[in-house]
Amino acid sequence: LVEPTYSRNIWFTERNEYIALSLRHKGDPLYKKQSKFQKVEIYDTYQFGRMLTCDGAIMCAEKDEHAYHEMICHVPVFAHANPKRVLVIGGGDGGTVREIVRHEQIAQITLVEIDPLVVEASRKHLPTLSSALDHPKLTLKIDDGIKYVANAADGAFDIILIDSTDPVGPAVGLFNAEFYHQVHRVLAPNGIMVAQSESPRFNIPVFKEIFNAHRKVFGSNNVYPYLAFIPTYPTGMWSFSFCAKGTTHPLNRFREDAAAKFSIDQNLNYYNEQIHRSAFVLPRFVQKMIQE
Amino acid sequence: LVEPTYSRNIWFTERNEYIALSLRHKGDPLYKKQSKFQKVEIYDTYQFGRMLTCDGAIMCAEKDEHAYHEMICHVPVFAHANPKRVLVIGGGDGGTVREIVRHEQIAQITLVEIDPLVVEASRKHLPTLSSALDHPKLTLKIDDGIKYVANAADGAFDIILIDSTDPVGPAVGLFNAEFYHQVHRVLAPNGIMVAQSESPRFNIPVFKEIFNAHRKVFGSNNVYPYLAFIPTYPTGMWSFSFCAKGTTHPLNRFREDAAAKFSIDQNLNYYNEQIHRSAFVLPRFVQKMIQE
After folding, report:
1. pTM of the entire structure?
2. What ipTM was estimated for this complex?
3. A28 three-class SS
């Protein structure tokens, strides 16, 4: 009996000083290049399928990316009364755009990814994520998101999604007040920004800092954290920050019947109208963190 | 400058064939004994405080045990109209009992733990968990839970909590139909069983098997899975199975106002009346698993 080559016992590990997640994969990376910004790699894991990493941090994996991409996209789309123009900062893997193009009413999508190798890696090795990167509604720009937003016209977008890496390396500027001020300016009246906002169980100071920064710009009553289960991110508990320009509320007037029909028609993996509501219910320890 | 001893770079790892979680700890285990059933250890981790493991699997850790213990206990207590008598199978660390004794209306608690070393380790090294193990309402039995339930009187308990390890080793019998039949018999009319029911992201066949077994005994319409974020369990997404004898529904008549007041008065860490409702909302991929 010949042992197949994929029986090699090789693991990818993402760690900080105190905690580490390791995933066994099938051997050499499918993709490994150093860009101007970061090391971009793709591994084929047993548990979660193909996985994109940047500088050793897991970005997304085929078998659990649906939760993240559905939740960053469909929550603001169904909370908005009539979204037409969407801007995505980051998200070069294409997963977020794939979810946006499911919405026929959205007429115009702009994706601004700083690192061309993220797009290249995803196009080559993550076809289920990058499938919409050639969609006719999409304008794909390889550019610095901070610069792009600073130069964009007032009120140009109904929804802006900050689909960034962690607040280290190339994404640092996507977590500071000046950037959020520009995002606020570029949003149309009643526009919504949603940003991935790290884990309330992993790096608590960073989690609090993000929410405080959003509140300073959007106003204390216009920032609503919500949660999703994402096994490949540290602790498995991930948060998003829903920030409204004006008085758009994530639940009070959300298009619930449309969300219910959509989640079935599109055969979604994670989101439906009940998940939309329940994601905003926070465990008490998270409530307390945010109140402080 | 002398390096403190706790700078040693020592990690505890829990793994299956494809995925592993590692936690850095402060050195030698605080407790390490082999019982008749399993290896019982306590480590002092940086991220989650002191942690109990059985045969290398994480049972609970000081800084994230609240989610598990509050959710296994308070959900059935507030779903039940008038709970008086509670039986816990497993749970020798004491965390579940600590939550039960917060409820003054509960008159009688029986804990049946098979392994005396779990109780010993927790009493010695996990005082915040074991604090209620000497409570006057508690009868603590070191015994086989399967045997105990088989010999218990019909209708003896309003709530039975299966606070077990994974379905390997000493807990295997707690996952089979004959045991659930006995639990059903021992529940009073309108009684509730809640069992920890593994992760829908980790071992999918086991997850499905547990729910099918519960449905066969309690009836298809009387089994309701619910979810909580538990970072120290594989994938961070953990499930419980709420099984009703009779027609008790987890939400329709739950004592919502009492739950709201209780969560504030007791300064809980995770549970409140909104979490009670939202925990039963399942992502679509979990709904689909359960429907099959």
Report:
1. 0.95
2. 0.93
3. coil
